[in-house]
Give the backbone structure.
Amino acid sequence: MATRRILLGAAGLMALARPALAAWPERSVRFVVPFGAGGPLDALARLLSLPMAEDLGQTVVVDNKTGAGGAIGSAEVARAAPDGYTALMAGVNLPVTTLLSRNSPYRMEDFAPLSRLAVIPHVFVVPASLPVATMTEFVAYAKARPGTLSFASFGVGTSNHFAGELLNLQAGLDLTHVPYRGGAAAITDLIAGRVTCMFSTLPDALAFIREGRLKALGAVHTERLRWVPEVPTLAEQGLPGVISESAFGLLLPAAAPAAIQQRLGDSARRALAGTPMRERLEQIGMIPIGSSGPEFAALIDRDVRLFSDIIRRTGMTSLD
């Protein structure tokens, strides 16, 4: 009899939970962007907010929570109520804080990955004056000048910082890292020859490539980029393991119900599948992805393993 009452009680609780879950969302959903307005992650969040609001039947609000290289906004989502109303729009650097900071305010286990939304591909660029035309020629040029050449990045622990260190490791080079605060200053110094090379986002470099002020030696993607189809990929030139991209994804607090995770992820995937959205993203240099949650989780695991290995092998210093 007691067992029967327990079973009936559990069934009753499940029956009560089903309508509440089916009604989600009953109010606006907040997308926390852990960087300032106007950047690519912010642009993606705002573009997605409109079709997703229509799909979900509730407003989607974009909330910029800046500071500490994205850690403040990310930690806010990690601590948020796991009810599906607070989601994180994250960049590829999300795991970096957990790897390079002794006092990280979140762990990767705090999040449920919903979808890898889009990527901005990177290209390996050098000043127009550098006497090389391919990655093979660049590697030979750099090996002949150990310790005298440099690579620029957006800052310590950024995706193109890791890519430069990975190129050093895989090609046996000795390029010195020069961190900048963002891409614009790095591109300016690269054109002037004050640094030797850089893994740049394609939008940052494209106009200078077309003007002939920079040379693109390799596309860092699984296939050639439609914006610069003449530029071979790194894999075509014998460097398949060098990864550099600005990738963006959607996550919820880990304890959010699986059905809400699925619904929000599906909504994002439907928004990205629309032709107007895909065309708009490609106009600003983004490639829409719209992966599943497990696919996104696998890519995060790949990045954690890769970044951890680079940190171990290079002795990369802490962000603290």
